[in-house]
Design brief:
prephenate dehydrogenase (NADP+) activity (chains A, B), Prephenate/arogenate dehydrogenase domain-containing protein (chains A, B), homodimer, alpha/beta, PDH_N (chains A, B), Prephen_DH (chains A, B)
Chain lengths: 324, 324
């Protein structure tokens, strides 16, 4: 009897919470809109003519949406528009290149022949050294490289990181950064070289290691269901991080991983360290292992504890999202 | 003005939600207790005398708490109790060994000399073949191996996985499994051999690869702050998963990784596949890469999509838990 009453109470409370939460979401969205309008009024955006090449693609269309929201006149340029390229690409204030990596360099050369000398030329490629070099050598006007550090499935760019590398005449590109900042992303300035070095870790090493781990699992062929059934929350997360890669577009990952042969050296050094690690295991020297462990702890500094705390919250959340 | 009203409304709603959520938590806890009492009444636990060796440790004390909650008479046995071992360990219905891996085998031998022939001997070690062999050869009575697949910081064992491997006379151990099941864990039966093979992936490979990645980062020495600043949500998660290891006890991980030299072969095969992967990159053969990618996708089957969906929810949650 008590149980029935408690269950009814619980259901009522859950319904109330759900109703309040949707009200809350409405209010937040209204407030966000007010704040956005306030920032928009303060910064007084001057409407520019912007063309996004590849603007029908996933990432391109996100930028079309965002720049339109800011009050710019944004045009989409796709493959079928090349016959009218002269008319469409001249007299633009800004042309943004958002095409797959393997097409970027040749496209930049083609585009630079057409655009006006004072057009801001920008790209959204996930590497920065080569596209920036290509833009600087093919175009005499203002140049800036952008790299949005998020997938195209985000709702908006608020709180998301956009790395940018200066090319030429940054003052002439500043309006683009200023206007984007109205939407509250984190704009992160970084040299193209440092950007690409960081990406060697963040993208190339990560995706390549995940790829090899997937191949390893397939070749070892353990029972996946049994592995999942016995997974600790953290290993389940790891399995999910591996499995998710292979549900995606292999061309995209091939392009990222093969993009820069300079990165292969980093992978080779990892492989050598993996081998040294195995030799350490075979020597049975636990003290040396613990010394290495302590050295890495020191390298991570305060972040080791931060990450432990962060992942603790996250693993609790992960437990709820499990696919049963 | 509108803004002020909206903000006040939002605060009111947030307070209401927070109040309702704490009411909800109270109700849920009451209901859980009722369900627990119902299951307890149905199963009619017969109070047994249980000693947990290492019961003052993290995992041991969790089991002391859980078994006491079920109505058993649970004693803690620690190093200082050895002088009274005869008195404390004989005539127990069950003795559970919960000590660090590197002490488990010798401790089992010592304990088995003392306990009564019909005592259920169990262990909580994260490997199963060797402890089970040790228990079977040193003790003539009922034997069962348990491996709780979670850290000792969980609030309770509901929904958590406990793998178990049968040793001898499982019927005489059944009450222990039945009683634990009152608390709604997932009890997962698995042979000691299959358990250890799965753990080679779930623990040894995972922890070892993370260790090597940490060493790699330390030796390459990129700017960690810059890496974090530019991380996509998924790479931030990876960094957190690496960093968290090094905030923990190196002895524990040394023990797990060094525990079984048979596992080193698995690591070597991974290393060989890593090398083959690098050779594939150097050959520039993207088509072969994409073919491998497709093969692994096939191996993951429906789980590839499941994991993508699961990680999508999780990455949204992760975005909130970031340490800024």
């Amino acid at each position: 009897m008590v149980e029935v009453v408690l269950k009814a109470n619980l259901e009522t409370i859950e319904a109330q919470i759900s109703e309040l939460q949707s009200k809350k979401a409405q209010l937040e969205s209204l407030l966000e809109d007010i704040y956005f309008q306030q920032r928009l009024a303060q910064k007084a955006v001057i409407a520019k003519n912007i063309t996004v090449i590849g603007g029908a693609g996933k990432l391109g269309s996100l930028f079309v949406r965002v720049l339109t929201q800011l009050g710019h006149n944004v045009s989409v340029f796709e493959t079928q528009d090349w016959p009218n390229a002269e008319a469409l690409l001249t007299n633009q204030d800004c042309v943004i290149v958002s095409v797959p990596i393997n097409l970027t360099l040749s496209l930049i050369e083609k585009v630079a022949q057409i655009i006006s000398p004072d057009t801001v030329l920008a790209d959204l490629t996930s590497i920065k050294v080569k596209p920036l070099q290509a833009m600087l050598s093919a175009h005499a006007g203002p140049v800036i490289g952008l790299h949005p550090m998020f997938g195209p499935d985000v709702a908006d760019i608020e709180d998301q990181v956009i790395a940018y590398s200066e090319g030429r005449n940054t003052r002439a590109c500043q309006w683009l950064l200023d206007d984007l900042s109205i939407l509250n992303p984190t704009l992160y300035p970084v040299s193209a070289e440092n950007h690409d070095k960081a990406m060697a870790f963040i993208q190339v090493m990560r995706h390549f290691s995940t790829f090899v781990y997937g191949v390893h699992l397939k070749d070892e062929d353990p029972c996946l269901r049994e592995l999942i059934a016995m997974s600790s929350p953290i290993y389940r997360l790891e399995l999910a991080m591996i499995g998710r890669l292979f549900a995606q577009d292999s061309q995209l990952y091939a392009d990222i991983i093969f993009s820069n042969p300079d990165n292969f050296e980093l992978l080779k050094r990892f492989q050598q360290r993996y081998q040294s690690g195995i030799e350490l295991l075979e020597s049975g020297n636990k003290e040396l292992f613990k010394q290495s462990f302590a050295d890495v702890n020191l390298w991570f500094g305060e972040f080791a504890e931060h990450f432990l705390e962060e992942s603790r919250c996250l693993l609790e959340a992960a437990h709820q999202y499990r696919v049963k």
